[in-house]
Amino acid sequence: MVKKKGDLLTGKVEISEMTTGDLDAVQEVEQLSFPTPWSRKAFWCELSQNIYAHYIVARVDGIVAGYGGMWVILDEAHVTNVAVHPDYRGHGLGKRIMLELMERARSRSATRMTLEVRKSNDVARRLYEKLGFVAKGIRKGYYADLKEDAIIMWKNDLAQPRVPWYRAPWLGAR
Description:
- The protein is of the alpha+beta class.
- The protein is 26% helix and 36% strand.
- It has a seven-stranded mixed beta sheet. The chain has a two-stranded antiparallel ribbon with strand order 1-2.
């Protein structure tokens, strides 16, 4: 059972590179999260054969609770997928995964990031908007399983370093 206190997970959260040893747990999260989940082989190929791919897992008390992945090509990062196990949703883990992907993209010289999100996925869309992503287009029927449109979102200022709120000069902090 997940330990929760209010809006926060009380367990220790660690984010690390995804390995092939994580694939069974990642596949479980994937199956619980999407109507047409990626196969184990697809994840294996991303990890072992795609030089542009970068995948991470988020563990809570050692248990894989979520993951995220992206491709970084030149100065662009493309988020391929982000998912959080249903037992861990609603407590900021998706945001932590996205922030980590953004930081890792930045460290690989990406200056902007893009993703597609289901038109019906209001929770994810709100998260991406809070992180500075802006809807820039629609891919009609992108999700073939339900013939659902994808909203294309971009964040163009990825290279700007984050300033912790307590160091923000406009707040008078030193």
